[in-house]
Amino acid sequence: MTPLLHPRIVLKMPRNPKYPLAPLREHRDRKVETATAELGGAVRAREAADAAKRAAEQERMAAEARAEAVRADEAARLARGELRAADLAHGQAWEYGAQTHIARLADAEARAVDRVTAAQAAEGAARQGLAHEKADLDVVVKDQGRFEDRARRAREGAEEEAAEEVFVAGHIARGRPA
Asked: Considering the domain boundaries, does residue 60 fall inside one?
């Protein structure tokens, strides 16, 4: 800098210091972004598991309703005397097949419920992971805020000191005979 009023007074303004933990801040920002993406994936997986569970439940309920309709029709035909012994044997075999099919659908529904439970646990873990990463980032963000506040106060103090030096130098310069 060049002297303003007096050749021996040189004002030096402090440079803006760089935050020393900037790389850590960037690293933690990336970890929060990663954890956010993981949570998004976990939410989508849980939603897909919920949809699969609902579909399995609807399929099982539809199969039960169809089987109940066939049973009601068979009972009505039996009451009217329209069935023979061979029809009854055939109906018994159908009943066994229908129950086996419904049991398989119920097993599929139970597996879907297990997948929903696992997906919910994964989503909860992802939420906790994101909260942890955000808390770690928050520590650095707050420290950076304090650092920048100290730097701002130091800069303002240096500016006030420089202004005072200029003021004093101006009075000294006026006090000298010309």
From this structure: yes
Total domains in the chain come to 1
**Burial classification of residue 158, based on how many CB atoms lie within 10 Å of its CB (0-12 exposed, 13-18 middle, 19 or more buried):** middle
In a domain, 9, yes or no: no
Domain of 146, CATH number, reads 1.10.287.1700
Cβ atoms of 115 and 49 within 8 Å: the answer is yes
- Amino acid identity for residue 40 in this structure: G
Q: Which residues contact 63 (CB under 8 A, 6 or more apart)?
A: 98, 101, 102, 105
How far are the Cα atoms of 163, 171, 178 from residue 167, in angstroms, in the given order? 6, 6, 18
Taking only the tens place, the pLDDT of each residue in 104-138 is: 999 999 999 999 999 999 999 999 999 999 999 99
Q: Give the C-alpha separation, 134 to 20, whole Å.
A: 20
pTM here is 0.71
